[in-house]
Amino acid sequence: MVEKHKHCIVCGMPISPDKTPPVCSKKCEFTLSRRARRERIVWMLLPLPFVALLILFLIFGGAAP
């Protein structure tokens, strides 16, 4: 029978089930923190093109004469 375990969310190596965060090493912990930081930045920047388009539409897309 296989012991209860989880897998590292970065590299997939088996780890103990009570490990928090679920990573196997300092290298994977660093990779996870970099990935989380990058994801936060992407989610903050994602709406910017839509806001820019909305502003351009409001400025230049008024009613036709």
Task: Describe the fold and architecture.
The chain is mainly alpha-helical and 65 residues long. The chain has one domain. Helix content is 51%, strand content 6%. The chain contains 2 helices and 2 strands. The protein has helices at 26-45, 48-60, and strands at 6-7, 14-15. The protein has a two-stranded antiparallel ribbon. A hairpin with a 6-residue loop joins strand 1 (6-7) and strand 2. It is rod-shaped and about 70 Å long.
List the helices and strands and how they pair.
Blueprint (H helix, E strand, L loop, with lengths): L5 E2 L6 E2 L10 H20 L2 H13 L5
Antiparallel strand pairs: 1-2
Summary of the model, kept short:
The chain is mostly helical and 65 residues long. It has helices at 26-45, 48-60, and strands at 6-7, 14-15.
Number of helices: 2
Q: Name the poorly predicted regions.
A: none
Strand order of the largest sheet: 1-2
Task: Tell me the number of strands.
Answer: 2
Globular, elongated, flat, extended or rod-shaped: what is the shape? rod-shaped
Query: From the alpha-carbon coordinates, what is the Rg to the nearest angstrom?
Result: 22 Å
What is the terminal-to-terminal distance?
Answer: 78 Å
For the sheet with most strands, the description reads: 2 strands, antiparallel
Report the β-strand fraction as a percent range. 5-15%
Approximately how much helix is present in the residues?
40-55%
Order of helices and strands: EEHH
The helix/strand class is: mainly alpha
Number of structurally distinct domains:
1
How confident is the prediction overall: mean pLDDT? 91
